[in-house]
């Protein structure tokens, strides 16, 4: 049997009691029956539609636009329409959706997270009722795709105090000037959340800039080594006029921005778990099929040691994320909880994909074996939504009561 599988679901001798071969403690059993059906529906879509094309698109740094209608049919809403009376989806379900997407491909997970978490999450948290009714239904159905513009060319970790994009009120309009960088989905998004500083009040405000608005220019960032499918953009705002109706009504300070990041940061930690599980499962399948010295390499003690270390990292991180989801559902989680998860899980992810590449030897750097793609993409996940160092300072401040940022 060829080892060049197109999907990181390579079966090994131990499949585990959960839905994923690497779910050693069966965390997915904690999902409600309806939630498991949602995950199984997503997994089949990833298996049949994403897996056959993802490596080619990654190699060409091209986005598979043909997949977008498929997402609309999966029923993966990660928000509840305030007018519907429906309950909010559990944070465990949201997290496992992020895990499953990344298990197939980190770029596809990033597209989904930017759209549903950052863009839709901002409209939900910072828009008034009219703005939510105006944009969320089309975004939920993937008829309109969103992006989130916060990071700037000269500002990353210090963006809270160093935001340079400006907004100036001019009658019933706002004039935006500045630049953004690394904005996922922005080359094709129908609407982009732009954070800017009011020149008169110094407050950080949020705006929806719709596709085709004069003065808005997005250009694709080329020659990336990670998340190559994601269409990251440099944005230039040159006297870009948006109506007052597009100013998010409840976005009045950077604290409102931080509310969004607190939620999405935990999503990045879930992505790290998804990459770990995928890398482990690829390595496990390879170890049972690859033969050296007349036996499968899985019979060698050092190979089993690598596999167990990978499984331990993935299982421990998965457990942390399950508990974080419970804290989120209870409404008691804080910045430091998501910061610790993002810092810890991404460090473990880096270790795990490195061990998978080591186990595959030279095949670990060939895209056909998938591990090389995960190794590269892990580097982006390690850094975005706040570096490990910044997460460490958030947690350090919480446990000592002493701020060490400057």
UniProtKB/TrEMBL annotation:
Belongs to the acyl-CoA dehydrogenase family. Residues 147-240 form the Acyl-CoA oxidase/dehydrogenase middle domain. Residues 258-399 form the Acyl-CoA dehydrogenase/oxidase C-terminal domain. Keywords: FAD, Flavoprotein, Oxidoreductase. InterPro entries: ACX4-like (IPR045008), Acyl-CoA_DH_CS (IPR006089), Acyl-CoA_Oxase/DH_mid-dom (IPR006091), Acyl-CoA_Oxase/DH_mid-dom_sf (IPR046373), AcylCo_DH-like_C (IPR036250), AcylCo_DH/oxidase_C (IPR009075), AcylCoA_DH/ox_N (IPR013786), AcylCoA_DH/ox_N_sf (IPR037069). This is Acyl-CoA dehydrogenase family protein. Coiled coil: none annotated. PROSITE patterns: ACYL_COA_DH_1 (PS00072), ACYL_COA_DH_2 (PS00073). It holds the Pfam family Acyl-CoA_dh_N. Residues 35-140 form the Acyl-CoA dehydrogenase/oxidase N-terminal domain. The keyword Isomerase does not apply. GO terms for molecular function: acyl-CoA dehydrogenase activity; flavin adenine dinucleotide binding. Its cofactor is FAD. GO terms for biological process: fatty acid beta-oxidation. The lineage of its organism: Bacteria, Bacillati, Actinomycetota, Thermoleophilia, Solirubrobacterales. It comes from the Bacteria.
